[in-house]
Amino acid sequence: MARHLVFVGGGHAHMTALLKCSEYVQRGHRVTLVSPDAYHYYSGMGPGMLSGIYRPRDIRFNIRKMAGDRGASFIEDRVVRVDPARRSLMLQSGKTVSYDVASFNTGSSVPAGALSGAVGGSGENVYPVKPIINLLKARQRILEALSSSSSPGALDIVVIGGGPAGVEIAANAWRLVHDNGGAARITIVAGKRLMGGLPEKVCSLVRQSFLKRGISVIEGLRAERVEKDTVLLSGGGELPFDIAFIATGVRPSSLFRDSGLPTGKDGGLLVNDRLQCVDYPELFGGGDCISLQGHDLAKVGVYAVRENEILFHNLLAALEGGTMRRFEPQKTYMLIFNMGNGKGILWRDTTVLDGRLAFILKNYIDNKFMKKFQVSGERKETG
Ligand SMILES: Cc1cc2nc3c(=O)[nH]c(=O)nc-3n(C[C@H](O)[C@H](O)[C@H](O)COP(=O)(O)OP(=O)(O)OC[C@H]3O[C@@H](n4cnc5c(N)ncnc54)[C@H](O)[C@@H]3O)c2cc1C
User: Fold this and answer.
1) Could you give the strand order of the β-sheet that contains 216-218, starting from the edge strand earlier in sequence?
2) Is 262 left (phi over 0), alpha (psi -120 to 50) or beta?
3) How many Å apart are CA 370 and CA 183, to the nearest integer?
C-alpha cells in the first residue's frame, strides 16, 4: 500500500535516506522533505568556512535538488508542531502536512536568548555558532569591519564558550583576520576551564597554540550577559566587542515538548535503539534532535553520521514491514579540531595528536563525507 513518508529537516542523519529516496518512491510511496532552507551546511567544516579555507559551496548540500531529483517533494518551511493523534505536522506558514511515517532530523541550536536578551540572541554583531550559515554572515561582517575606515585599529572579537566549537571559532577568526592583513584582539571566555571535559593534554595544546598567536583565554569566569557591544562577566568584569560569537553548547528545539511527545531531559525526541519514538512507532529521528533511551550522548555529528544507514533501513521497514536494525552508539569516537593555522588537534580516548597531519586527516574525512552526498552539482554553484 502506498504511504506518505515525511522527512522533517535534511540534516546529517538523513543524508543516506535522501540519497536513496528513489527506492521508497519506486515502491510507490510518496516522499516529502520539509526544511526551512534549500541547503544544509556541514558543521564540521563551518569554522573553516569562517576563515576562508572553504567556500560556502564546498560545505553545503543542495537538499532541495537532492530530494527533487529522486522523486520527492520539497516544502520550504519549518515544522512547528506535531499532532501524533492526527498524524499531522503543522508548519510555520500555517499549512499542515499529514504523514504515515515521519522522521525528524531538526538538529539543535544555541540557546543564546538567555545570555543576550538585550540583543535578541543575534543582535547585529552577535553570532550564535548555529545555524552554520551564521558563520558566513560573521565572516562577511568581519571582512567589512576590517576594510572600513570608520573602525580603525584592532577589532575586538569575543568568543563566549570554551568547548570545541568555541575553540575552532576563535582559531579560525584569527586566521580570517591574519589572512586579510588586519588586526584583532581575540578573547575566548571559557567558563570553568578551556576544553572542559577533554583531557588536560588537549587543553594545554590549545592554550599553547592560542598563546603563540596572541589569542587571550579567560578561564574561571562566565559570560553573564551580552549587551549591545559589551560582554558582562561573572565577577563584575566587562569585555567590549565589535563582533561576538556565542558557543555555549546546543540543545534541541522545543518542538517535541511543545507537541506533547516523549522527550529526554534535554528536550530531544525520546527514541529506542531502532531510532523510533518510544510512544509512536511511526515517528523516527536522528542526530542532535533525539534523545536515545538509556544513553546520554554528546551532541556530535559522529552519531548523526552513523545513524544514516539505520534510518534508511528502518524507515523502509516502517513503510512496508520487516525487521528493523538497531543503533548501537560507539563508546569512543575521534574528534579533530581545526586550529585555523593549517594544524589540527586530534583526540580519541587516550590518544592526542597535534600538527599538520591531524588537519590533513580531518580535511580528508570531511571531504569524503561531502563527496558522498554532494550529488547535485554543488561545487559548480557560485558562492
Ligand atoms: C562550529 C561547530 C563545529 C562542529 N564540528 C564538529 C565536528 O567536527 N565533528 C562532529 O562530530 N561534530 C561537530 N559539531 C557538532 C555538530 O554540529 C552536530 O552534532 C551536528 O550538526 C548534528 O547534526 P544534525 O543533522 O542532527 O543537526 P543540524 O546540523 O543542526 O541540522 C538540522 C537541520 O534541520 C533543519 N531544521 C531545523 N529545525 C527544523 C524544523 N522545525 N523543521 C524542519 N527542518 C528543520 C535545519 O535547517 C538543518 O538543516 C560542530 C558543531 C559546531 C557548532
Assistant:
1) 126-128, 243-246, 155-160, 184-189, 216-218
2) beta
3) 33
pTM over 0.90? The answer is yes
Contact by Cβ (8 Å): 38, 15: no
Q: What cell was used for 173?
A: 577568526
Q: Helix-strand-coil percent breakdown of the chain, rounded to 5?
A: 35, 25, 40
pLDDT tens per residue across span 30-77: 999 999 999 999 999 999 999 999 999 999 999 999 999 999 999 999
Contact indicator for 31, 25 with CB cutoff of 8 Å: yes
**Cβ(362) – ligand 1 distance below 6 Å:** no
Mutate which of 43, 50, 335 for ligand 1? The one with the most ligand atoms within 8 Å of its CB, which is 43
State the distance from the centre of ligand 1 to the C-alpha of 166, rounded, in angstroms: 15
Count Cα atoms within 13 angstroms, Cβ side, for 8. 30
Q: How far apart are CA 211 and CA 183, in angstroms?
A: 16
Separation of CA 244 and ligand 1 centre (Å): 20
CA of 15 to the centre of ligand 1 (A): 12
Expressed in angstroms and rounded, the spacing between residue 151 Cα and the centre of ligand 1 is 34
